[in-house]
Amino acid sequence: MSDHAVASDEHLPVGHDTHDEMAHGGIGKYLAVFVALCGLTMCSFLTYFDFWRENVSTEASRALMMAVSCTKAMLVIMFFMHLLWEANWKWVLTIPASFMSVFLMLMLVPDIGWRQNNGYAHYSDERLLFAPDPPPVEAKELKEAKQELSHEGAH
Q1: Domain limits at 103?
Q2: CA 42, CA 37: separation in Å to the nearest integer?
Q3: pLDDT, tens only, 7-32
Q4: What is the spatial distance between Cα 78 and Cα 81, in angstroms, rounded to a whole number?
Q5: Alpha carbon of 92 to those of 89, 96, 108: distances in Å?
Q6: CA 3 to centroid of chain Cα atoms
């Protein structure tokens, strides 16, 4: 049998990388991704300081946090879960599932958000009859509400 028919890496000298390790780029690439994740985490952390809150709008902060979170998730998925080196079938599974999750969110959020009279939509009388009751108010919250009302009435 020739050397070309051997499937194992028994002919590699000690200390040399196997084919899989060379294809993934070695430890340097993982360290670079780790440093990038640390930097992105630092960006997220900086948004909690008063200086940031005084100089940047809340909407911009939320957009930045969402972009940082998506970037961190992409790096983890691509490198540490090894999807970067998977075959193209991953797109056949990922893209339809992504479309379905966005579709479900767009369909369910208005239904859940517009459950009862909120100025935009309301239940019909028949549906309201069978709707669940709102959760009970805790005794502490009820006491605080009564105190606030009594303070407002005194002024």
Answers
A1: 87-155
A2: 9
A3: 444 554 444 445 554 556 678 888 99
A4: 6
A5: 5, 7, 25
A6: 49
